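hey so u asked for the seq, here:
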Amino acid sequence: MTASYDIAIVGCGPVGAYAANLCGRHGLRTVVLEREADAYPLPRAVHLDHEMMRLFADVGLLDVMTPLMFATDGHVHIGADGGVIRFLSSPGTSRPFGFSNDYFFYQPELEAALRDGIGRFPAVTLRSGETVVAVTPADRDVTLSLSGGETISARYVIGCDGARSTVRKSLDIPLDDLGFEEPWLVVDAEVDGPICFPGFKGVPEGADLQRLSVMLCDPGRPTTVVPGRGNHRRWEFMLLPGEVDEAMMAPEIVDGLVAPWVEGVAHRIVRAATYRFHGLVAERWRQQRAFLAGDAAHQTPPFFGQGMCHGLRDVANLVWKLALVVQGKAEDDVLDTYQLERDPHVRGVIGAAVDAGRYICELDPDLAAARDANLRTQSGPRTAADLIPAIAAGIVEGDAGERFIQPRVTTALGISAPLDVATGGGWVMLTRGVLPAVGTNARHVWDMIGGRTFAVGPDISDDADILDEEGHLEAWFERHGAIAAIVRPDFYTYAAPADMPALITAIERLSTHLCLRTAIGAEG
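ran it, structure tokens below
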């Protein structure tokens, strides 16, 4: 029996909705099943980085998303004495990735934009108010059982249904506990003016606390203060030993915790809820034709603001591979690279967040003072985005695997644009000037995956398709000793070959890496 859909997505939060937009762009017959009739009306996730803006642009939603974003200057950690112990910021520096490093947003607006985007694709159907109760993968399809008794079949399913994932539970996939759990009270408010920062000292010159995410590592009460779009602000207060969730959510307690920060400023509490900040990763991200993504696959403490970003990276990694398989270009085995590539990536960032959480949550004053002294002697990442590691194994050649840059370039038509706009995305090869032909075998592989090639030069001429306006691409070639960059559809670098033999080999090896079929169009 032919499956009703190519892809079924369970859950239409930001990760599921973005996955649906990606599936639509690839022309995949997709159904999105969301148990809630309407989008969740209150804020949850609040932060994303430049890579997510690039992903939104990739599905044609940048113009919609940009007005919803508040670009900020990064993150600052304040020690027990009120002074800075860690400053992750890069205002005033160049932007080789094309966007600011940090953005804050109001999740209901972001979700609405992503859901509206789904409507552009006739192959994608959103079914709200549909509860999936069981997922049964088989060799050639997956059956999804709905609460009303209906069943749906799809060639593949992506579980984007959150931390309490029905898909994960249905597949009986355990979570690996990374050893961090702390209770916090999260408070969202609308604040009609700048907030106060009592007791702070030694903030870096030029830093605007209204444009920074501030982590107060106070043993008396660790607290995070988060900026937002418009008049939205968030506080996260660690619960102390003996404090009870229900009692801490009482309006008078919440008002008392927020009061020192909003003295003399009109404000309204929108939401107060307690959470357990976890470090958890699913042991398996794939079971036959079912996959986990986002919070269904992993949960991270929020100290670097990467929770939702992880989920968007998941589906950006997965969907282009699913498209190759569904379109008959690749064997199903290529999908095994999903967890191979994403699991180490996620664990690395969660590990950094857990380490930060442990020092942030220190309640002993003497240990906190020693922590502050130690951290002030260390040099760490310049921005939270610098924590993102390269892909070490999977669809990658040699020491490649890093996120590729996105500078502004000028096209042969004289148009100045971001690199992705100039190239159109997908599989892209940028060469340092015009290179010799790669040969029949490599050309066949490159054509099979729809790869496009652009020669980069210092000016537009017969020797270049793209003008490197600010020299970022030339600097990249120099830094990597490369004659070319082969960039994947998710904007990670597949290869950085040093010479023509290495370039030809890298392209030919794509046939193996991608499990390509010799006959395009065979049924999968």
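The first helix runs from residue 14 to 25. The longest strand covers residues 175-191.
lmk if thats what u needed
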